[in-house]
């Protein structure tokens, strides 16, 4: 049957069977509808049969005692399908609500715990899942502390059946953490991850605004680690840029660099200034940003030169020599100017002086190790 291979056909089949049942009822032949239903259910898979019985229960009027048998059978056939089970249980509660005593008598045996869940708690739990953002989720949970009480366990578990296992587990973990630390603390790692991705995706003006308003959050280890990992191993330029900006923000040197990103002509003097400081930690990330926004090969080469200088100051002369060779390949004509800069910077940071000899040799000989 087509319904067995296509969920859309299964829904159409359910609608057709329900319409046929209504028509047979109108003409006084309900037994004919039962025959069609029984033949259909016998000819499809067990989960599909459970789906059709769910559809039949949903269309039935409350008080129709046949629904009890349909639902009991469907729950047995649902084969652990979370969403199907959730739908069947919801219908059972709907049909039980007007006359619990009569429903329970037809159910045979004591009603299951999920039949007795407080309807108000179910509504509150369902609304928590239906919030549109993580921030709204957090605020809703904070405002409805009853969801954290043991009395809400069954209601929360019930509404989570509508989600796949992985998504449901996220809510379980958040709820467990909120019980111990409160909703704000429970959601903080998740919201910091969102902030990290927002910062990476933002343009420079938006990044400047985020640094002004969310500086402490952006400088948390969580955000910096996420962004740094995004920037490694050939990461996108936006992630590399974000990583460099946070490094500068941590050292208090981000504002002049943000201005230079809007006006790249400010970078040469700014990089020279950073290199002249006793603590030249800002030089490396600032040079990376200058390289990203460089509009010409000349500008890119100069930024690459300063990257090499920053690496040398950090103590890795071999890596610095490789970066310097790449800078010279971009623009061989700046070698003499770079020698002058290295001599000046070397007065404060002698570790850069081994970069001078490679600049005095022919271009095809500069890729070797510094002397």
What does this entry look like structurally?
The chain is an all-alpha fold and 371 residues long. Helix 14 packs antiparallel against helix 15, helix 18 packs antiparallel against helix 19 and helix 19 packs antiparallel against helix 20. The chain starts with 6 loop residues before the first helix and ends in an 11-residue tail after the last helix.
Number of helices: 22
Find the count of extended strands (DSSP E, 2+ residues).
Answer: 0
The structural class is mainly alpha
Gyration radius over CA: 34 Å
Residue windows where pLDDT falls under 50 for at least 5 positions: 1-5, 366-371
The rough form would be described as elongated
Note the beta-strand portion. under 5%
Q: What is the terminal separation in angstroms?
A: 79 Å
Specify the helix fraction band.
over 70%
Order of helices and strands: HHHHHHHHHHHHHHHHHHHHHH
pLDDT average, as an integer?
Answer: 93
Largest sheet properties: none
Primary descriptors:
mainly alpha; disordered N terminus; single chain; 371 residues
Give the SSE layout.
Blueprint: H1 7-26, H2 30-42, H3 46-59, H4 66-77, H5 82-96, H6 100-107, H7 119-129, H8 134-143, H9 153-160, H10 165-181, H11 183-201, H12 204-213, H13 215-218, H14 221-231, H15 237-251, H16 254-262, H17 267-275, H18 283-293, H19 297-313, H20 317-330, H21 335-346, H22 356-360
Task: Describe the structure in brief.
This protein is mainly α and 371 residues long. Helix content is 71%, strand content 0%.
